[in-house]
């Protein structure tokens, strides 16, 4: 899929098999929401149609920052200029859930049927590989892998779970084994948790796969937010989601640690999800520059470990132009009236409960009122 | 200057005189650094030449978010499509300092001479008004105003000081009086401090101007970072500057408070500086939508006070779709090992000291070594 | 042991069997260190001999606060006035270790021999029951229980471990089963972790005992410090130990939550260890006043849930005279330059390592120097 | 007053004139509240009558910790054993207010009359000097000084104000001048703010006195709580007052900094108020041991700068036995869900307002109800 011109370059599996590091991109919806093109809540991806120049600019920035995978924001976002760099198509658990919802949750077969019809379109567009991602229940991911395998393309399967396993309590190791047996070539974790938590979870997946005598490649695409206070359902339950997450944003130096740890654990497809900006991906690429043999284009605008500060007028700012300084920095929040951690919401309801059915329309004011009352009482 | 087509629309003074609110844009260098186009340290603005599409896209996003001033990133960044929206030219204290440096600090007259030659170019391009900004010493700002007045355009003068006054200890009120007497039409504060601190400082400027029986308009373009721990020299002395400021980034709700407070104090030119992203400007525009009579374009992708969450599947997330929730939220940092405040650096050296002369080239390793030693000892 | 005069009152097991709640006291060495009578580091208990009035006063305060167990600070501290209230004798893991050390760790039998000779003295003094406490390895606690059982008195066995189990990785449940099988009547946790962590660990012990079809009573005597950042070796490894723990001290309201949770889990011997002051024990006694049927003497100087504030002159202070207020309060540290959590020390060395042998004399300056170097490098 | 036996030793003024450092004690009501003998809210001092052994023990501990002033907890607390150590009598602003209240605030003369009758009793008991303390309005302190001067004893006058001055806005410097002119020999600050804030305020008082060409000695008796978030009315308005202040308690190392700073500023009567425990006073005495020429008795149980840890079994704990370690420690709160700072209460009402009249009896439930409603709304 990467740097494609078909015959000329190797596909993603050939590259991973050869020991290369593949750097993913960041999450588009969060970045485009901040740029004014996506609505939080429905998170609808119509920006690709309405404002293609904004989507294209973000693709450019991630590529310049070192990504060598371009995940389509939506199918229609693919764009001639970008086409020959290869790209991957995502299929999310949310889509499957929506399909299930349309069908009143009738049956596995029907869900797969709908899903298959979507796939046909993407196959025609000749994407380089398929990613089934953002699943909280491993069996839904298995269905997706089974369908995607029919395309003949390499298939990645990525869950949005933490070390405690999926929402039915299946451990990361067992989840990974099931996905590999279903046919996934690359398995891993995306979204919902911070980088170190995701890397830890992928490590557990890898150990499970190896214990089972199987083989796979591993991917990780975490949040760019620190989430030590999450429960098993991830950052959506944090009170700050989605409009108060700023104090949790990782610095570029946090990203260096993440990239190194992911590499050490044996992960070779290393990217990002919600919260990642181009400079976060650049930090990943810079940390792994020696292993990859090159720096990304955007590093021409970024001194190594703060080296650009060597020209600053104040000597104490020049003294920050060193790795040791930034590695040890414990950055202050500037918010003395705020805590370090929150208590996740989650009103004792778990997935599958009737209260959690997808609504087609915005909740009415009458429906919202008891929610507001309950929320106030629980604060 | 705003929405210009010359005769058709009123200039900035006419608008402010009529009681309109003018919304500025955000700081370009910080935003473009994160997108991979500007180098922190030298902060050189060559992106306008090298990657005009990136600069243009950021202009688009700020305009879409509600800015009705477009401050040129550099002269050459001005772009046909944007030209007829009007724009403002910035002249910074740093430029004046550099000029002074070139001349070995010879004399006020020579500094003004160099400055005048730059001005001539901008006048030809017919910008709508001039902003002299980022001055730590009021007399430098006075010189700038005197030169800019010769253009016949409206002149803004903006200092990067806090409530303690300029680096010679001249109070905000006295600074403002001197700038107005020098001919500034609009006076205010930009950069160096967080929004509430800047608003407080402009309030002191306004009180000074009124006590002196003078009249002016007021502007504010603060950081998008919380900086309660700054000393009088601002955020550059914070240990997190410039690569560890993430935990300090304001949320959109912080911006609502800022916009309201700025309006209440009587400021009518309300914008942003380093750290502002388009969604921050949108929040300013949304807070003042009633007073201005319209919402910005980007609000079509942003429910009022989180209203977009009304469609979320989880009831506790739907319960966040209300103003009360976001106004009271004290967002956690997710960083329990980090403090809330830092101790600013500043090795007992102040502006004008020989150690602070601008270097033309990067500091050599021999020069840096003693700095690193000193920095380690002082930690 | 409680409220003793032999025939007149029931012993501790009879009381626990009858469903009574027994409230322990707090840790003496930490409290007396702050009062100026005990030296931190060696933590030597000579205060009982040198300043018996100070020890006696602290006993009085804990009894007044609601304790109905008086644990001898040392044997010699027992005092005529207090004698007829009954008391318990503690045998600590540290004592056993010291014995082991004296014997150059020769054998289990010899350790038990020394221990037995100490016991004989206490039996003569007719204490009401024996507590073997502060063990990090379950087998040492088993030896202690076996010896203490020969006294014919009720025996408590208390470990200083957390949910991860003892330092050899034996789970809390398995530890508890082994102690009960060795003859302990009451098993539980003391020291090393904060109240909620200790309660959680005792809960795991109880589940283990019940799964094994055994029966026991449960005790808990935690720290009065919040320790969410501890690793398995407890608060000694926190950088704040022992002279910087102040910001972690629990409020009286935290103690209410602890007492309620301990009660709900089924623990009936509820006390405290290092950091507990008399008012902390009083809070435990007040929380459980309904269940116990009476308030402690010291409650005459303490309004229920802040009721004493009803007489304050300021109305906003009077408004704090309510349970709801104190239950929800998230108390600020007043230390914006400090973090919420620390990283525990522990230089990769675990118990049993030669570096950890008890020294008879203070470490020499030559021995300390490399430690200081290492410590600085690891910061 | 110090180490008195009349002729034998010098009085407090002679000692201060000779350049000696006098160390005060800590606040009794807060310490005795935690020990179970005083009720927060009314803060009634009946403990001296009801539990003299508890009061006597606390006196012993402060003396042992290095205090050489013993401030009577109340008159009746004075005790034969302690008599010959000398002592000081306190007259508080609260007493004066109460007197004023009794008289329906009739006149300055009548207030002074009541006050004078109290004084007569103390004079008979031959205390060594008088302290008028805890005044928020300088004129009340002036009245007190005028009355106390009639005793012929040295008089201290201490306000509970911060750098912003008294509640009528009289600056610390002007307050001090007025008190010295009224006859005070020693002026200073006690209670309401943290040590560094109090020292800063006394420094301003000293500068005022010196500017006026007057002479005085200076005293400081601050809180043992960090209060960076207080407004001008001090810690009573903090939401944590008085039952949630634990995270703010100063460490012994904080006290070293305080003692050094107070000494450097020229203060020679250095003590403590609410929150001070004996070990805090010991830290003050240890910091100033060189200047005073001796260590307090309690230092026999306290290694210099943590030296007692040299005997600890774990090498990383032994490595904490050094000044550098404790001086640099930024102690964690262990409370990641709590903030660093609070917002002071103060419902727009200031002293003198009818809502703030002292009540003779506890507020009734009907009176409290609207307060609770208001408090909830303002959270």
Structure overview:
Chains A, B, C, D: Residues 352-379 have a biased composition (Basic and acidic residues). Chains A, B, C, D: Involved in the regulation of homocysteine metabolism. 4 copies of one chain form a homotetramer. Chain A has 379 residues and is α/β, with parallel strands linked by helices. The first copy, chain A, has a single domain (6-378), classed as TIM Barrel (Alpha-Beta Barrel). In chain A, 41% of the residues lie in helices and 8% in strands. Chain A has 16 helices and 7 strands. Chain A has helices at residues 12-17, 28-35, 47-50, 52-65, 80-83, 93-102, 108-124, 138-149, 172-182, 195-211, 252-265, 278-287, 289-292, 315-318, 323-328, 365-378; strands spanning 22-23, 88-92, 129-135, 155-159, 186-190, 217-221, 269-270. The first copy, chain A, has a 7-stranded parallel β-sheet with strand order 1-7-6-5-4-3-2. In chain A, helix 9 packs across helix 10 (195-211). Chain A is globular. Chain A starts with 11 loop residues before the first helix and ends with a helix. Residues 1-8, 75-86 and 100-106 of chain A have low confidence and may be disordered. At the A-B interface, helix 2, helix 4, helix 12, helix 14 and helix 15 of A face helix 2, helix 4, helix 12, helix 14 and helix 15 of B.
């Amino acid at each position: 899929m990467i740097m494609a011109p078909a015959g000329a370059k190797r596909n993603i599996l050939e590259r991973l098999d050869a020991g290369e590091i593949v750097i993913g991109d960041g999450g588009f919806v969060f970045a485009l929401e901040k740029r004014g093109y996506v609505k939080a809540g429905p998170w609808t991806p119509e920006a690709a149609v309405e404002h293609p120049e904004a989507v294209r600019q973000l693709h450019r920035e991630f590529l310049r920052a070192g990504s060598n995978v371009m995940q389509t924001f939506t199918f229609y976002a693919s764009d001639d200029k970008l086409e020959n760099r290869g790209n991957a198509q995502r299929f999310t658990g949310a889509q499957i859930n929506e399909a299930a919802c349309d069908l009143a949750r009738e049956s596995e077969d029907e869900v797969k049927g709908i899903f298959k019809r979507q796939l046909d379109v993407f196959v025609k567009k000749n994407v380089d590989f398929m990613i089934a991602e953002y699943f909280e229940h491993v069996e839904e991911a298995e269905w997706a892998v089974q369908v995607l395998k029919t395309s003949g393309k390499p298939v990645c399967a990525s869950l949005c779970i933490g070390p405690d396993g999926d929402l039915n309590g299946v451990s990361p190791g067992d989840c990974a084994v099931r996905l590999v047996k279903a046919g996934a070539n690359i398995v891993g974790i995306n979204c919902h948790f911070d980088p170190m938590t995701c890397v830890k979870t992928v490590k557990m997946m890898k150990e499970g796969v190896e214990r089972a005598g199987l083989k796979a490649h591993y991917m990780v695409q975490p949040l760019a937010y620190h989430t030590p206070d999450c429960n098993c359902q991830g950052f959506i339950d944090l009170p700050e989601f989605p409009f108060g997450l700023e104090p949790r944003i990782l610095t570029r130096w946090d990203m260096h640690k993440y990239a190194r740890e992911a590499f050490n654990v044996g992960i070779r497809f290393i990217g990002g999800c919600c919260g990642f900006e181009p400079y976060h991906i650049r930090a990943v690429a810079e940390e792994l520059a020696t292993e990859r043999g090159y720096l990304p284009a955007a590093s021409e605008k970024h001194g190594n470990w703060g080296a650009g500060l060597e020209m600053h007028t104040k000597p104490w700012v020049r003294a920050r132009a060193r790795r040791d300084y930034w590695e040890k920095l414990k950055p202050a929040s500037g918010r003395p009236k705020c805590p370090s951690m929150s208590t996740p919401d989650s009103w004792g309801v778990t997935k599958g409960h009737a209260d959690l059915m997808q609504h087609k329309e915005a909740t009415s004011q009458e429906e919202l009122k008891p929610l507001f009352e309950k929320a106030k009482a629980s604060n």
